[in-house]
Amino acid sequence: MAPRRPSSRAKILKAAAAVAREAGIGHFSLDAVAARAGLSKGGLLYNFPTKSKLLEALVEEHLVEFEAELSNYAACSAGRPNALAASFLAVTRDQDYPQEQQPAGLLAALAKDPSFLEPVLRFNRQTLTRMTATASDPHMVLVAFLAIEGLRLTRLLGLDVLDASERAAAYAKLEALLAASTPA
Amino acid sequence: MAPRRPSSRAKILKAAAAVAREAGIGHFSLDAVAARAGLSKGGLLYNFPTKSKLLEALVEEHLVEFEAELSNYAACSAGRPNALAASFLAVTRDQDYPQEQQPAGLLAALAKDPSFLEPVLRFNRQTLTRMTATASDPHMVLVAFLAIEGLRLTRLLGLDVLDASERAAAYAKLEALLAASTPA
DNA sequence: TTGACTTCACCGACCAGACGGTACAGTTAA
DNA sequence: TTAACTGTACCGTCTGGTCGGTGAAGTCAA
C-alpha cells in the first residue's frame, strides 16, 4: 500500500486530476495523464498497472483529502449543535471553487465503472450516520445533508444554478437551520 | 424539427436510454444502441447523423418529459404556498426509482461533452427563479431546491445513502418546511 | 398504363484513429 | 550486481463515422 517512491505516485495523481478536469471525463486517457505528469506511458503503468488502479487511487485520494479537511473544521464546530453537519457545511462553503477545480476524477471513475464510487458511498453513509446520531432534530439534519450534497454535486456536474448571493444565502440559511434546529 | 417517421426516432431514443443505463456510461456506443433498437448502424446514423446529435436528443427528451411531469403535478399543488417547489418535490418523490431506472443518458451526454447539459442548466435556473419569485421565504426555497437536487443527483450517480425510511422522513420534512415557511 | 427517375429509409462493409496494455531494453541509485 | 524505475515500440480492440449500395414507394411524362 505504501508507495516506494511517493513522488512519482503523487505527481501522477495530480496530473490525473488535472486531466480529468481539463480534458473532460470521457477523454481521460493514460497517454494524456502520462504526458501531463511528464512521464512515459511505461512509467505510468509501472506505478499504476491498470487504468482501474489509477482511478481507484484517485477516488481514494479524494476521500482522504476530504476527510482531513472535514476534521480540520471539526475543532471550530465543536460544542455547537449538529457539529458534524456544521463542519460539513463549512467545508463545502469554503470549497466553493469554480467548476474548473472540481474533483473530476470522481466522474472519470464513474464513467469507467460505477462501482468505483462505492468508497464514496460508504463514506457518505458513515458521515450521515454520525451526523444524525447526535442531532436534536435528525430529520432537519437529513434535509441539510441533502442540500449540501445538492450544492456539491451540482457543482461537480456543472449544473450549479445559484449565483453568488444565492449561494451565500443558502449557506446562511442552512447554518441557521442547523444551529436552531429543534424537533418540529 | 418534426420527425417524418417518429417511430424509428422514438425507438432509438428508448434504446439509447436503455443502453446508457445497462451498459454504463462510458460504454455508450452507437453499435450497442443500434443493436438494441433492432437497427443497423447505418440506419441509426440515418436518423441521428452523429453521436452528439443522439445525445442532444436524449437530453432534450428527458427535459420535455420532466417538464410534462412537473406540470402534471402543478394542479395538485395549486394554491398551496410554494406551489412549484411542492410540485418539484412531489415529482421527485414519485420518481423514487431504483438506480437501474435513472436517466443515465444525461451522464452519457456529460461524458461526451459537459456542454450537452446546458439545456438542463437553463431549465433548472428557470425553475428555481419561478420557485423563489412567489415564495414567502425565498431562502427556505433555495435550501429546499438544493435538497431536492441532492436527492435527484445522488440517485442518478448511485450515491444515494438514505434508506427508505430516511427518504420518507426527508420528503415529509421538506414538505413541512415548504408548507410552513415564513421568513425567518 | 408504363417505364424512367427520384426520394426515403436503411443496410453493412470498411476505415482511421484512439486507447489500454505488453514486451523488453536501457538507466540509475544503493 | 541488483532492484527500482523509465522509455519506446508495438499490438489488438473498440468505435465513430463514411460510403456505396438496395428495395420499396411515389412521381410523372408520354
Description:
The first copy, chain A, has about 180 residues and is an all-alpha fold. Chain A has one domain (about 5-180): Tetracycline Repressor, domain 2 (Orthogonal Bundle). Helices cover about 70% and strands about 0% of the residues of chain A. The longest helix of chain A is centred in the middle third of the chain and has 27 residues, at about 50-75. Chain A is elongated, with a radius of gyration of 18 Å. The interface of A and B includes residues 25, 138, 170 and 174 of A. Chain B binds a DNA duplex (30 and 30 nucleotides) through helix 3.
What characteristics describe this protein?
DNA-binding; 184 residues; mainly alpha; HTH-type_TetR-like_transc_reg (chains A, B); homodimer; Tetracycline Repressor, domain 2; 9 helices; DNA-binding transcription factor activity (chains A, B); transcription cis-regulatory region binding (chains A, B)
